[in-house]
Write a structure and sequence with these properties.
Strand content of chain B: under 5%
Largest interface: A-B, 51 and 47 residues
Number of strands of chain A: 0
Helix content of chain A: over 70%
Shape of chain B: elongated
CATH architecture of chain B: Orthogonal Bundle
Number of strands of chain B: 0
Radius of gyration of chain A: 24 Å
Structural class of chain B: mainly alpha
CATH topology of chain B: MetI-like fold
Number of helices of chain B: 11
Oligomer: heterodimer
CATH superfamily of chain B: MetI-like
Number of helices of chain A: 13
Structural class of chain A: mainly alpha
Helix content of chain B: over 70%
């Protein structure tokens, strides 16, 4: 077990390192000279050269990468090439906003999807199951940004009930959280149902029935217990996806979070910001996947053996 | 002939498949005959006063340039379908070749391929595509490439697993015994057996591709004005949402109709061809 966990962590670290190298060198190939973003085109060449030196742009790529990593480990991601503010300060202000938004909607997601998925799996092919599967297929086809637009139209513009941009009060969070939840809940319902169906087919459930245990006991002690583990796994598995939904929703509701920072970084060719955001998101995603794998392995000894070789 | 009839009967009785098929046929016909269906060109400005509400001449109203919204929505279908088609062809090509090679050779080749696939999964697709777009620059064709670079791994995963299990089948071993070339074994012995799974994956990933590309256009990274792209149209509508709500409604309905149609078709195809294939 310990070997497996160590192996997975090593794989995860390697993944993050390679992603960071890729992102760093990819952004280096970005069209346009960063100096031209930093200053006016008319600035004399000597001044530009001095600036290049100052920003360390003359060093060879590996040196710059190592310097960047050294900084990143100490929480220094360099300065934004547009605003010239330290990226870390921008990040400190924005990461909590994004986390608040995504965690609220993820918890809502689970509260909605787990019971629905459980019932749909238990009463498979019944009316409720059919209705929910149809609805979730429909909702899976509605992109979160259109949901946001419609929510703004109905609650913000027509009914004038809720504010449509900003993040200053709890009221401001209602529409973005709703948009994010509606946009991601369909997938989670389907996932819960599939997983619970797998549990229901397990032999120990059959054994429990064969022992003559009442249906309710089997459901509560055998199926639900495993389904709760599933909830933990789903939480970590979905977090990166909900965050990527947040990227879009933040842009619509003008919420100053990581997503908006990343988007404006790309639009402004502000490569220090893009590097930092991508690195943070990669670490987050890899960590979440790692936690999922480890939880699964702890609970299911068969996987430990099967996963001895490959990661997936 | 009898087998074909049975397959046809199974297809006809699969409700998801049939409804999805009809919806997709409608979209494809609209895209092909856009020139006949749309009463105006998508970039014909000043046809009517700006922000004309839906009326007889302009079914969906007009936008901030006085362009006919119905025509723009109709022409938008071409963009979505073209983008989805090109991206899926790229994904299939990349994913299937890498998956076949990884599954067939195994060992270190497999380890390297799997690691590259893991790399693309180390971030959610939209964010990975955004990083790729930063390098390639904005534009709809670059979005297509970005999406394909991110999405091929899904095909590779499935193809790799199937190849591994097929490799030990008697008919493949016979081929190896007859000293067939590796490429022949992969393409003539193994590939034909994976085609159903690839079709299922492709039909499930078309709607995802359309969603992702329109999302990137919505964020201002994809299609550029005056393109009638639905994502771009929705993003444009945000500025006039109080004045012209129809600008926010119709492109969205078109988008949901298209994605829903493809989703149904994909689910149906999976039930018919390969019930066990799962999209992550």
């Amino acid at each position: 077990m310990r070997d497996y966990v160590i192996k997975r962590i090593a794989q995860g670290v390697l993944l993050v390192v390679v992603v960071s190298i890729l992102v760093f060198s990819m952004l280096d190939m970005m069209p346009g000279d960063p100096i031209n973003i930093l200053t006016d085109r008319k600035v004399p060449e000597e001044v530009k050269e001095q600036l290049r030196e100052e920003w360390g742009l003359n060093d060879p790529l590996p040196t710059r990468y190592i310097n960047w990593v050294k900084g990143a480990i100490h929480g220094d991601f360099g300065k934004s090439i547009r605003t010239k503010k330290p990226v870390v300060d921008m990040m400190k202000a924005r990461l909590p906003v994004t986390l608040k938004l995504t965690l609220t909607s993820l918890i809502l997601d689970l509260i909605i999807s787990v019971p629905i998925g459980l019932i749909a799996a238990y009463k498979k092919d019944g009316f409720f199951d059919r209705l929910m599967m149809g609805l979730s297929l429909l909702f899976a086809a509605i992109p979160s940004y259109w949901i946001s637009v419609i929510l703004i139209l109905v609650f913000g513009v027509s009914l004038k009930l809720l504010p449509i941009s900003g993040f200053s009060s709890a009221k401001h969070y209602i529409l973005p959280v709703a948009a994010l939840t509606i946009g991601s809940v369909a997938g989670l319902i389907r996932m819960t149902k599939t997983e619970v169906l797998d549990v229901l087919r397990e032999r120990y459930v059959l054994t429990a029935y064969a022992k003559g245990l009442p249906k309710r006991n089997v459901l509560v002690y055998h199926v639900l217990r495993n389904a709760l583990i599933l909830v933990a796994i789903m939480f970590f598995m979905s977090l990166p996806w909900v965050i990527s939904g947040a990227v879009i929703v933040e842009n619509i509701f003008v919420i100053p979070g990581m997503g908006q920072m990343l988007t404006s970084g790309i639009l402004n060719q502000d490569f220090t910001i893009v590097q930092a955001c991508v690195l943070i998101l990669a670490i987050l995603t890899v960590t979440c996947n790692l936690i999922c794998d480890i939880i699964t392995a702890i609970l299911d000894p068969r996987i430990r053996v099967a996963m001895g070789g490959e990661g997936r | 002939m009898k087998i074909k009839n049975a397959a046809l009967r199974r297809a006809l009785s699969n409700r998801n498949f049939m409804i999805g098929l009809i919806m997709v046929i409608i979209i494809v016909l609209v895209a092909i005959f856009a020139d006949f269906i749309a009463p105006y060109a998508y970039d014909d400005a000043d046809l009517a006063p700006k922000f004309t509400p839906p009326c007889k001449e302009h079914l969906f109203g007009t936008d901030d340039f006085g362009r006919d919204l119905f025509s723009r929505v109709v022409y938008g279908s071409r963009i979505s379908l073209r983008v989805a088609l090109i991206a899926v062809v790229l994904e299939v090509f990349l994913g299937v070749s890498i998956g076949l090679i990884a599954g067939y050779y195994g060992g270190n080749v497999d380890r390297v391929c799997s690691f590259i696939a893991d790399l693309t999964w180390s971030m959610p697709p939209i964010i990975m595509s955004m990083a790729v777009i930063t390098v390639l620059g904005k534009g709809i064709d670059k979005v297509v490439i970005a999406i394909a670079i991110v999405a091929w791994a899904e095909y590779a995963r499935v193809v790799r697993a199937k190849t591994q299990s097929l490799k030990n089948m008697a008919f493949v071993e016979t081929g190896i015994a007859f000293n067939e070339k590796d490429s022949a074994i992969m393409l003539r012995y193994i590939l034909p057996n994976i085609v159903p799974s690839i079709i299922v994956l492709a039909s499930l990933s078309i709607p995802a591709t359309i969603m992702n590309t329109t999302a990137l256009s919505f964020l201002g990274l994809g299609a550029m004005p005056p393109s009638p792209d639905w994502g771009l149209a929705l993003s444009n509508s945000m500025a006039f949402i109080a004045r012209a709500p129809w600008m926010a409604i119709y492109p969205g309905i078109a988008l949901v109709f298209t994605v829903f149609g493809f989703n149904l078709l994909g689910e149906g195809m999976r039930d018919l061809l390969d019930p066990r294939t799962k999209l992550r």
